[in-house]
Amino acid sequence: MVESSNRTVFFVSESTGITAETMGHSLLSQFPHLDFTYLNRPYVNTLYKAKELVKEISQVSKQQGFKPLVFATMPELDVNSILENADCHYYEIFENFIDKIGHDLHTTPTRESGLSHGLVNEKTYDARIDALNFTLKHDDAMSLKTLGEADVIIVGVSRSGKTPTSLYLALKYGVKAANYPITDSDFDKHALPEVLLDNRDKLFATTIEAKRLREIREKRRPASEYAALNNCISEIKKAHQLYDKYDLHPMDVTHQSIEELSAQIVRKLKEEDSITIKPSKDL
Asked: All domains of the chain, ordered by start, with CATH?
């Protein structure tokens, strides 16, 4: 029996809380009929902070009349023992795995705070920062001279998810991702620029449903020709004509997140074994 259609959810960690939040959101996505209020509580790394958080959880429980949900990554046992006795439904994500993994590896986990988000490999970190800088410099075709240095070049009509996907690829995977918006000039010529064709093997095309594109553009330029539905339909049609010309198979971004789009691209790169992926644990 569901006590309420709206539940309060805490994401708690001794560090950034990204892991707890990501796992919690993934699990709660299986309950789409419920509404959730999310509260992030990172850096709960002392007994004092844990006790203060227990007071907050107790207050929420009393005010709402039912226990909130708490997703935590808390390898420090003393802090964890305080939180698991709070007036809540407590889900410590590490607890179900750490000891079993240690048993299977015939070793003992350190349970040291902060390790899951530490700078484990400086070279990998530097590579991701280099990729991010490259991606920022090559956003929206700002620089075409060094486009050949890109690992990935995302093409598509304006506002079809190219920039956020490029940034995620750089931050998460260390991929040098450039992006190019197809413009009226390209449509008039019915051709992509030579610099793109010289890097044909790096191209990833995007498409999107016209109604969704109109919604996105309306937020940027309300009541403009740029955002008009007929214009969106026309641009998408012309983009597909270009894709057909160059045998590009576009990814539909209408209902996909940037994480899903990025995963598609990375999977393709791995299949082709074209670059070394340098994943981050922090996103």
From this structure: 6-117 (3.40.50), 122-272 (3.40.50.300)
